[in-house]
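sanity check this chain:
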Amino acid sequence: MDTRCITHLALKQYKSIESCEIELSPLTILVGRNGVGKSNILDALRFATDAVNTTLEFAIRERGGIDQVRRKSLGGRPTHPGVALRMRVPEGTAEYSFRIAAVRGLAFRVDREACRIISPSGVTLHKFVVDNGAVTHWSLNSVAPAVSTDRLFLVAVSGQPEFRPVWDVLRRMTFHNLNPEAMKLPTRPEPGELLAHDGRNLASVIKRLRATDEKGLDRVIQFIRAIGVPLSRIDHKQAGALETIEVSQEVQVPEGTRNSNFDAISLSDGTIRAIGILVSLISARSSATSGPSLIGIEEPETALHPAAAGALMDALIEGSESAQIIATCHSPDLLDHEAVLAEMIRPVLSDNGKTVVGRLSGPKSQILKEHLTTAGELLRVDQLEPDPADLRRQEELKGTLFEAIE
């Protein structure tokens, strides 16, 4: 089943990315060396989600200000970072883009924002365009909401049923760069629909799953045991006004096997990270309307033994049947899995400080299709590179997704 909500992502002048336009798969794996910009691609999607769920100002400040968001121009010319998305919505396809400009000091403004909903036959059903703080196109019969140059217009129109699906896809994307310390410590209760970026609300998510998807938590246990950790149960635990998790683990004693209970603080970093990833994947399966529309994961293999990579990839592949998944990776062990296809891999490299990303090159794709080697083996010998034909296509289409909406 094709679970993609975002089919294409185009970026301009965002951090290390001068320009890119890539097609995404139900499971997309961004592969490359450290520092080439894999995380920046993932962060651009998270940036759009943060701007919708909080404010554009907060999303920019969290990244260190507008100068840290926009790409540094070698010629000293100002750059306007932009994000454009093509996504699936109930009426057909939606295209949405926004571009930000810096103003004097460290301030910013929304330079341009546009959205259109397209029927399966290619007819534009609904559309808005905001340019320099003014609505220049509004297809609905109602009066357009007021424009604020420091906020996305999409948030203002999210109450309109015509544009709400776009807002809904963006707000339900979730991204993880899990912090074991934040996950281990007792925290105040939080909403449990989506796992937080650092995983701090793991207990809340598990509590919700325990109430709504008991079989889902059992599946988490199955994967954890396949990874090599003999857990028999994961539960929410109340600690006064705070909450944490408690796990039961099988322990060998002279009399045989018994279960011992441990709080989250006793778990290893690798185990708590694995639990967080698996719980997030299961949360997509348990709720099609309130769960994540897309899950982004930074290096899911971190702190896990290489022998656990196969079970982790099994979980990612199964999870991609419920929600679209994008993961960064530089682990050959994870890519050794026989189910990793060329269509999943997007090699990322740095060319004179610019991030370049594209489909896997044709010859390497053919090798994988013929099962002559694995993606992991190609990564070990540094032979995963973008397809030159795809890079030429991106150059020819530079800005097309942005311009198509306008």
About this structure: Residues 174-292 form one domain. Residues 299 and 329 are 5 Å apart (CA to CA). The longest strand covers residues 242-253.
